[in-house]
Amino acid sequence: MTKMLASVTGVEEAEIALSGQVDIIDLKNPSAGALGAAALETIRATVVSVDGRRPVSAVAGDLPMQPEVIRARVEEIAATGVDYVKIGFFPSSENAACAAALEPIARRVKLVAVLFADLGTDFALLPVLAGHGFHGVMVDTARKGGGRLLDHMAVARVDAFVAAAKANGLMVGLAGSLEAPDVPRLLPFAPDFLGFRGALCAAAGRTGAIDADAVVKIRALIPEEASAARSAGVDYRLLAARGYAPGSIDPTLGTDRIFVRDFVLPVEIGAYSFEHGHTQKVRFDVSADVLRVTERPEDMRHVVSYDIIMDGIRAIVARGHVELSETLAEQVAALVLESPRVVRVVVRVEKLELGPGGVGVEIERKRADSKAARKGPSASDARPGRAGDERKGALP
């Protein structure tokens, strides 16, 4: 289950975050850089105020990659009683030495390494961190105002980063000037937490005070742990990522149609030997009928984002060679139908370099029981690929 981390400056903002049901309280000084450290007395006071209601983390500051300097600072922050200490790992030949110097502390407090998408994310550091007892790793952006996480890290690389971190036994988080539209795009990769600061400060920017309404808006996009009363078969993280809240579907509202047209990517595809070992241009057209949840959509809670379709296609393509256009179309259709709100999808996959015109396939898939879907998804409906097997001749 993905958790929500909110970066706060002290006791007052921590209480706002707690009122908004944030999962992890993270202390920093946003005026002092990407990982500006809060004063030790502020950290201690906040730990006392939170009083175990939520885990508390604190950043160590924008420090030079010098093992003894980093170790001394982390020792100070660990002594405040926080649950996690976050340490920035900037590109340096000393990264492995810094990780080794922190191993004794890692036996006493959970350490989380912070890597930076805009400075280059070194996947080779992940096993090193795990080997020295780090609890987790996250990717952030170092230059605030210089773009969001997804401006610097392609979705396929985000997917690979999360998978590589988990393969090394590390808790994994994603941050970096994230905004509300980024949440449904990142949740399908199943990070352990998403981190926010600027998006919680409304129009004030990351150095302003966090705003209670902005916290609630982001919190609503990241579902909390399912209670025992809920069906264990339904992935509520996935449902929320696709814009669904339990009990919110009114069948009288009907459907909307979202679409992605003329989306062209280089793809390793083809059954012939001459098609192996290189890419060719493939055009994707996708149209999905989506159950509405309100007559007046106002924010990301009310929609199924077309960004999810494009991100999903990119992730599928990044997996490697696909023999058949039909296989690729089925994978895209299954991806879109993972959304409990999608009742029908049409996918066209068109290879553009095999002649004067395009060649390919178009398929239509429906949720097996679209009537039941309009009443609200069951556990079986929520599973990927729960679709009928129909083909049509033209896009609607």
TrEMBL record:
Organism: Aquamicrobium soli
Chain spans, region Disordered: 363-396
Catalyzed reactions per annotation: 2 D-glyceraldehyde 3-phosphate = 4-(hydroxymethyl)-2-furancarboxaldehyde phosphate + phosphate + 2 H2O
Enzyme class: lyase
UniProt keywords, alphabetically: Lyase, Schiff base
Record flagged with keyword Lyase: yes
Stated name of the protein: (5-formylfuran-3-yl)methyl phosphate synthase
Name of one Pfam family that matches: FolB
EC number(s) stated in the UniProt entry for this protein: 4.2.3.153
Source taxon at top rank: Bacteria
